[in-house]
Amino acid sequence: MRPHAAVFLASGLWLLPGVAMAAIDHTAPLDDRCWDQTFVEDFDTLDLYSSDTPDGRWKPGYIWSSDVIINQELQYYIDPAQFDDRYSPFSIDDGILTIEARPTPPEIASEVASQPYVSGVLTTENDFSQRWGRFEANIKVPAGRGLWSAFWLLPSFDQWPDGVAVLPEIDVMEFLGHEVRTVHTTLHTNQNGPLESHTFDHRTRDDLSARFHRYSVVWTEDQVHWYLDREHLVSHPTPDDYTRPVHFLLNLAVGGSWPGNPDSRTRFPARLQVDSVTAWEDNGSC
Asked: Which CATH number fits domain 39-282: 2.130.10.10, 2.60.120.200, 3.30.420.40, 3.90.1030.10?
């Protein structure tokens, strides 16, 4: 869903030495001394979940089937095990995860629900979730019209709950490849019945696709706070339906109702690169 509110980057407020605080000032730049890590992924290897490896950390798929295409997107998300490892959108090189999107290879075209592109999604829904805390990833996004990178959080369920069309959702970062100086953050909630989306555009001076950036969210019982490179972006009150632990999701979509289709200038293969993913708990020391 296209964000509608604009927020321009500004520096956060630093705490002065010797000033006592009753709780972390979440509008200040993030300070690692205030947090204990609960999840660390440095991508030395990629530990994929499958029926043969049920202890795998990362599941290459959503809670719904890969044949269910959302948002009018043009990609099919590949589970390498489903294809007997004949094709994979995932690779690891020197501690960097790459999720690659490309036109569908002819040899698997009959197996991808007629989608013209293939790509990948990774989630920790089978391995890790946490209620409250700090969630972040160090990511390099690809430029190009029709490319839609996302790092987000969903509540964890064993199966999709009956009678719920859209789950509460925190979008830590969404990036459209034709808007290289804008990062989007969104809070989706069903607390009043129909879906409500609290969306923000954050415009920067830099081309965000040129290098890695750290995208973070701090979720507390009262507020959700977003950060870019540890500098505070925006905050919003925590909705009433944000009560369950959440898990990580990383994906690179192609096309869809928001970014539109790729054009002649979109370069493939397109690559979303991830250096690390971490979760933290407030240790109460700040």
From this structure: 2.60.120.200
